[in-house]
């Protein structure tokens, strides 16, 4: 096995003991998901042996000058995977989540710089290995490194994704990404449809331990009156940051350690300092409350479940083998290059038009 995993096998009996001995704990799934058919941990071992080193070294220097970019890259992979699978579709010009979409729904937009970073990585990787590595794999590795280089766990991910030929419409995008106003019922239903357990949902939400949000993502909890599940001092400070519902200000999502990938997000929730309804309700709802508490008191447990949920998320509806393509420019499909694939053009346009 090539899963250079950071968890010692010896921790498994301890976990089982913990599961049996403490009825607060509902966390039953700690198995690393198996690679999806067509993906493998050593996919690029001969095709591009320096792939992971190139990405990690480049991101190390990117984050040294702006650690905030780590959050942007982690969120990019999440949006890619949740909307029509991890196929790099989010990167395409014209995507409802893309930087070129001027009137995207409020705050659906991702950081413009994240797209630039991915395309830079693609260029470096293709310079070293030619067009052997997909943009969707580069996005997945960038998210993995964003976690590790922000102080989170180091882990391996299955590779071999191919890039999709079409992007999702705005409606499809919105239907697959729950809004920050969602409660736990909505989250569990929405993510449950993609195969995520309540533990996965709580673990994945821990991605909010890094990064920022715009006022518009949470002013519904501030105006006209305070959401009663929000701490009063936290509320006062947020009202100062967001004096009006349309303020363009931003704020950190984890007030305790905004740029460190740790378990403090869950401590925030226990102190009623979660930023979104979708965050705070995980502690209010009896189905997920004990999971929040367990992650808040045990960072190793959080890391273990986060890694498993990320590997699961990273394999949602992946294209493999001869499906899709390996883009030579992450923001457009190769068939746009008429001189390269003259025969494919009308066919691809047909697929696009069918949306
Ligand atoms: C469970 C449902 C989720 C909801 C409702 C949600 C919602 C949001 C919203 C509204 C923002 C702020 C956007 C803005 O105002 O600029 C945000 C930011 C972010 N989300 Fe989520 N998210 C969810 C799941 C996830 C997952 C699964 C991850 C990754 C594992 C993630 C990682 C992030 C990160 C890192 C940021 C900060 C981005 C930045 O600083 O540029 N989120 N999320
Ligand atoms: C992280 O994991 C990779 C592969 O799983 C390994 O090669 C690397 O040495 C690890 N890095 C650190 C700093 O632990
Ligand atoms: C990349 O492609 C060129 C031209 O086809 C070839 O000469 C070179 O050996 C390839 N490089 C790698 C790393 O495969
Ligand atoms: C998108 O969704 C909205 C609201 O659900 C609906 O009114 C609209 O017709 C949809 N647009 C398309 C192109 O499906
Ligand atoms: C959760 O949100 C849904 C949709 O807005 C709503 O119908 C439902 O009543 C809410 N559930 C709870 C327990 O608040
Ligand atoms: C932005 O937030 C700061 C405090 O964090 C506040 O003083 C300022 O008025 C806010 N500006 C706007 C335009 O909302
Ligand atoms: C925000 O809304 C207020 C009143 O609703 C308006 O006066 C103000 O110009 C708006 N500000 C922005 C930045 O749109
Ligand atoms: C925390 O979780 C880890 C991993 O599941 C487990 O091995 C460890 O015993 C837990 N620690 C405590 C103090 O419960
Ligand atoms: C990639 O495609 C975009 C348009 O989709 C274009 O603006 C950009 O210049 C292209 N990059 C390269 C290196 O060709
Ligand atoms: C209305 C609003 O605040 N929109 C913001 C949502 O996020 C994008 C990208 O981060 C910002 O550019 C918008 O200003």
UniProtKB/TrEMBL annotation:
Region forming the signal peptide: 1-30
Any one GO MF annotation of this record: lactoperoxidase activity
The reaction(s) this protein catalyses: 2 a phenolic donor + H2O2 = 2 a phenolic radical donor + 2 H2O
Active-site residues, as the UniProt record annotates them: 79
UniProt site positions, description: Transition state stabilizer: 75
Organism: Helianthus annuus (Common sunflower)
InterPro entries for the chain: Haem_peroxidase (IPR002016), Haem_peroxidase_sf (IPR010255), Peroxidase_pln (IPR000823), Peroxidases_AS (IPR019794), Peroxidases_heam-ligand_BS (IPR019793), Secretory_peroxidase (IPR033905)
Name of the protein this chain belongs to: Peroxidase
